[in-house]
Specification:
Elements (H helix, E strand, L loop, with lengths): L5 E5 L6 E6 L6 E7 L3 H15 L7 E5 L5 H17 L8 E5 L1 H12 L6 E6 L4 E8 L2 E2 L4 E4 L11 E3 L14 E2 L2 H7 L3 H4 L5 E2 L20 H4 L4 H4 L1
Parallel strand pairs: 1-4, 4-5, 6-10, 10-11
Antiparallel strand pairs: 1-2, 2-3, 5-12, 6-7, 7-8, 7-9
């Protein structure tokens, strides 16, 4: 797959949004922007800057980050991509959408930028009191990421840890983790998608957020949790 002229949209970070257009054969960025703002504003601000640099008609598809990461940000990005697909539904060559995962991209960016690093764990925020992790062994990322509870991070403390940009306070076991500036590494390494095509998968016309959590594992709202006790109940 040649990613030339594909528009990248990544809203997986809780702190910023990245957008860029890949140049000839995906070897360079025609333009790349990181907007340090919430997804709702950042996605449209970044893509507007892209369109000022490169005419929309020259964009032939999308590279979409499906997560893990900010569910709200990723789904706002997915909605923007779907809107563009709907507008081009009757086009002779409608845009194609290829999805990638944030932790796997970060793993390959680290391996390429720091070849001495062969064994490490990547950690990213998940829902409350949980973290997503991806292990890299002998320079090969595991096929799937997983989710662990904050209490379980203690068992990671003896390993090399890279942490993605985050908003939440880190637990003690992750306090010394090395920050992985994904968008900065990506800006400096546009060839990663051309060199590692396994990062991308064709997601058709249904880009969405990836989520390994069982829906039944989320805390559910119940009226009893929020109802004040009556005098009789307090006795």
């Amino acid at each position: 797959m040649n990613p030339e002229n594909y528009l990248l949209i990544d809203a997986s970070s809780p702190l910023s949004v990245a957008a860029g257009i890949l140049g000839e054969r995906g070897q360079s960025w025609t333009c790349f922007f990181e907007e340090k703002s919430a997804a709702l504003e950042g996605i449209f601000s970044a893509t507007q800057k892209i369109n000022q640099c490169v005419p929309a008609k020259s964009q032939i598809g999308f590279l979409f980050c499906e997560g893990p990461g900010s569910i709200l940000g990723i789904r706002i990005a997915a909605a923007a991509v779907r809107a563009r697909l709907a507008l081009a539904a009757n086009a002779e060559n409608p845009p194609r959408v290829f999805a990638y995962r944030s932790l796997h991209l970060a793993a390959h960016l680290i391996l390429r930028a720091f070849p001495q690093e062969k064994n490490f764990i990547l950690v990213a925020e998940s829902r409350m009191n949980t973290w997503n992790i991806l292990r890299v062994c002998d320079g090969v990322p595991e096929e799937n990421f997983s989710e662990i509870k904050t209490a379980e991070t203690e068992k990671l403390s003896i390993e090399k840890i890279f942490i993605l940009p985050h908003r939440r306070k880190l637990p003690p076991a992750l306090a010394d983790a090395t920050l992985c500036p994904v968008f900065e590494l990506l800006k400096n390494d546009p060839r990663v998608f051309a060199d590692v095509p396994a990062l991308l998968r064709d997601c058709g016309n249904a880009p969405d957020a990836v989520n390994t959590s069982d829906i039944n594992s989320y805390a559910r709202w119940t009226p009893e949790r929020h109802r004040a006790e009556t005098p009789a109940e307090k006795q």
